[in-house]
Amino acid sequence: MKNHYKDTLKGNTLPNPVGQWPLLVSKWHNLVGQTKSVMLPTERLKEKAGRQAAKLISPGMTFGLGTGSTVKWLIEELQDRFPKNANLTVVPTSEQSARLARQAGWQIKELNEVERLELTIDGADEADPSGNLIKGGGGALLREKLVAAASDKLVIIADPTKLVEKLGKFPLPVEVIPFGYTHVQRKIKEQFGVAGIQLRSKGQEPFITDSGNFILDVEFGVIDDPAALDKALQIIPGVVETGLFVGMAHSLIHTRPDGGITEKEF
Ligand code: 5RP
Q: Distance between CA 189 and CA 218 in Å, rounded?
């Protein structure tokens, strides 16, 4: 398989649409008018976005905790800011985030235990100018969508490589039940004429989600109508959830290539 990267948190392998962005370069002008390049590694830009979002959390709060390497920085910053007895409670969107929250000494609740959440903070694989998202690169899309849907506010944290004019460069994760998944795979391929569709793997085995399902990574190319595509996929028997989050994000906190922060409301 070419052009793949290792998701450092889950250890699963998935296509790398951002292989061309190992480092981001931004230009600035010095006092004598020369153009200089400032190179910030993507990880640093994730860190800044994650740390910035920690400002939304106060002691005693219950909030939805997303999944991924950007969220990991949010967790770091919250640990730096608050003592262990700050009484933070989270509804995690994955077993992995639950583990990190437990290590931080926070209380954990299941989604069933809360009526509503005032806030969830999560990452994204792509975000368009209207705040529509592709999520699920880390394989947590199902729980992420359920927690987001139960939240009054979904705040997305992202580095600038995630910003796109139109969704679709990142292969769309579609969670499917393992039973008969090859039929779902074939159906999607035929119905949408997609460029590629891969069963996500972890080593030699299929990647298994926290809910015991498989993930198909589907290369749609440019997605002109995310809502229509989401609907069309959802009605295929065997599809559990898609990584399209349409109209769900309330705000986006993203870093710019120079390390500055932009916050956008939708
Ligand atoms: C996990 C997700 C993540 O939010 C998304 O993959 C972004 O991850 P990262 O912050 O590591 O770039 O949807 O299912």
A: 9
